[in-house]
Structure formats: structure tokens, C-alpha cells
Amino acid sequence: MENKLLINNANTVFEKKDDKYFGYRSRFGDIVIGGAYSYRFVAHYAKTNQDVVIIPGDVNTVTTPVCTKLEERLWKPEKFAQARRDEIVEQAKADVAELVKDNQLDCAVNFIVNRAKRTVDALIKGEYSGDIYAMGIAKAAPSDCFNVHIGRAIALRRALGLAVPDEYLNAPQPTDVRVSDVVRGKYEESYYRYEGRLFGDSYEEQIKEIEDGKFRYMSGDYDFIDSADLTIIDDSREEVAND
């Protein structure tokens, strides 16, 4: 009864079927009823609109994300984004393992990771000949956080001619800085202005430890957690030097 009341009072409702979200009802008139939307669209919509509810095909059950005036505490965009990204990364790892295991072509799968170019190549090569039969490429957008596990899943699926799930292409950006993440920060003392614009030199570091109120880096430097303005640019959490 509580869930049904929540749905009835919501201004916008999406119905989730598999990896698509279909317009179920909207009082704003900006959602096409029956139209298919991606997770990325719905997540953004829920962050910018009040009273958004998602149902998994059963009107008696409500799933996250939920954004309502009465139940605002249920919607934590930053926490949901990180949790959802974690799920997608684990899904990508399992996907790659399964695809490699199911390979019946007597071929080897090789991955080439280029962190500087933010790319992952998947090569399908003859087990004995070494000939390349197929190749798939994944490249992170400049504004996206690079993740080698998602990249491998995308590249391998493209090499095999398989569809790439929408969640791989539109994974939420990470919000929680963790050990082994590569982050970008700016030197505050190096800011300068030119023609009214603010510039500053940036640095990239890998997190070694998070303790005593500090982000401690592999280089030996650190930032105070309370004042650090960091952007996570690689959350693969693999040894960067290995690739």
C-alpha cells in the first residue's frame, strides 16, 4: 500500500525492463509514455526533478533510484552513483571472464591497455599462428573516469561482434576516492589570471593510503581530505606501472 501510494503521488514514473527504462507516467509532459530511456538519462532526470519513481514491472514494488519530496532521504545521488558504478565494474569483470571461458575458436584473447591514451584494445589471435582475426577498441571520453575493467568488456564485446550493454557506455562517474585510485588535483599557489580567466597547473597522483585526515600519495606527497579538490581519473585499482 505504501509503495502504491508513493507511485500514485509521483510526478514521473519509469518502468524498468531489462536494461531499459520505459516512460510509465509523467505529469510534466516531457517523458514519452512507452518510450525507452537509458539508465544515464533516468539517473540525470531523477537528480534534477522532484517526485521520480522507478518500478521494475510490478507496481507493488519500488526500486531505486527514487526521488520524492516526502521520501527524499531515499535518494542519495552521490552514494547511488558510486554503488552503481561498483556493480558495473564487477559485472564487466565477470563478463570478460565468461566470454574468455566460452571462447570456442581456439583463439587467444589479448588486451593492450594504454592509460596515456585512455584506451583498451582486445585482440583475438590464433592460438598457434598468432594471426589477429578480430580487434575491438574502447576509449574513455576526456570527461570520463578511465576504468580498465569496463574498457576490457567493451573492447572484447566489440571484437566478438557482440552488443555492448548501455551501462558500460554510460556508467556513473565515481564519487568516492579510494586507495589505488589515480586522481587529478590543482596547485592552488600556481593559479594565475589571464584575460579574466583562472588557470592553474594540475598534478596527477595515485592514492597510497587514506588516513589521519589525509590522502597520501605514492610519491610521498599528500592532500588534506577536507580541503582537497580531486577528480578521479582512473579507478581501475590495478598497478598502473604494469600496463
Spatial extent as radius of gyration: 22 Å
Under CATH, the topology of the largest domain is which?
Double Stranded RNA Binding Domain
Structural class: alpha+beta
Number of helices: 5
What is the tally of beta strands? 15
H/E topology pattern: HEEEHEEHEEEHHEEEEEEE
Describe the largest sheet: 5 strands, mixed
| Number of spatially distinct domains | 3
Shape: flat
Spatial strand order of the main sheet = 3-2-1-4-5
Euclidean distance between termini CA atoms: 54 Å
| Assembly context of the chains | single chain
Q: Identify low-pLDDT runs.
A: 59-76, 190-198
Q: What's the mean pLDDT score?
A: 80
**Strand coverage percent:** 25-35%
Percent of residues in helices comes to 10-25%
